[in-house]
């Protein structure tokens, strides 16, 4: 039993070393420029050890992306949501949950979303998680609304992701709860009204 535990710990440590090396290299040179040998050298393992755990560099990337986004999805799923009537506090909770999750994995999110060689499918998968959440329990007040549900969802998700990208790019310039509160006010009252700007017809 002890031998099995030691083996499991060794595997876990090796994977952690590979993950750390991969994160660092993503920051330094971007995904496309990284080689398996780069990862092995940084993790202080040989190439054969790498291939014991991952089939290829894309396999390593997909594994970590799926793990990270699975954690994000699980966290977001737990947030209550109500779009009609709309609840400001609920949207705050969703945004704050996302930002706090990002904060725990800032280096990886920065590499995936902000670098010159960023991974575009990552952002698309993340947007789909947000869209699915905002689409939950959606019950339009009027069938003949001037704004279609699809357009409104795209607007909300684009705004949501825009705030997320700004927050990451500027290294968390405001606390997650403050950003979440301001974003919810923008959505609830419109950006001009929330900013105190008078609107004339």
Descriptive report:
By secondary structure, the protein is mainly alpha-helical. Helix content is 71%, strand content 0%. The protein has helices spanning 2-29, 36-43, 47-53, 57-77, 88-104, 106-113, 120-134, 149-169, 176-189, 191-194. α1 packs across α2, α1 crosses α6 and α5 (88-104) crosses α8 (149-169). The longest helix is centred in the N-terminal third of the chain and has 28 residues, at 2-29. It is elongated. The mean pLDDT is 83.
| Quaternary structure type | single chain
Compute the number of strand runs. Answer: 0
- Let me know the average pLDDT: 83
Point out poorly predicted stretches. none
What fraction of the residues are assigned to beta strands by DSSP? under 5%
- H and E string: HHHHHHHHHH
Q: Into which percent range does the helicity of residues fall?
A: over 70%
Largest sheet: none
DSSP helical segment count: 10
Outline: elongated
Cα separation of the termini: 76 Å
């Amino acid at each position: 039993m002890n031998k099995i535990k030691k083996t499991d710990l060794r595997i876990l440590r090796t994977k952690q070393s590979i993950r750390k090396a991969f994160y660092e290299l993503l920051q330094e040179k971007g995904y496309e420029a990284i080689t398996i040998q780069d990862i092995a050298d940084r993790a202080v393992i040989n190439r054969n050890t790498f291939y014991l755990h991952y089939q290829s560099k894309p396999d390593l990337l997909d594994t970590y992306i799926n793990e990270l986004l699975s954690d994000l999805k699980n966290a977001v799923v737990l947030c209550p949501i109500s779009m009609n009537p709309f609840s400001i506090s609920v949207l705050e909770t969703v945004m704050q949950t996302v930002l706090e999750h990002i904060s725990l994995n800032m280096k990886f999110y920065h590499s995936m979303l902000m670098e010159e060689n960023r991974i575009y499918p990552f952002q698309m998968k993340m947007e789909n998680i947000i869209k699915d959440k905002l689409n939950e329990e959606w019950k339009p007040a009027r069938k003949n609304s001037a704004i279609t549900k699809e357009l409104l969802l795209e607007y909300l998700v684009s705004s949501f992701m825009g705030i997320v990208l700004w927050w990451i790019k500027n290294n968390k310039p405001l606390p997650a709860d403050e950003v979440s509160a301001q974003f919810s006010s923008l959505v609830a009252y419109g950006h001009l009204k929330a900013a105190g700007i008078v609107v004339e017809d």
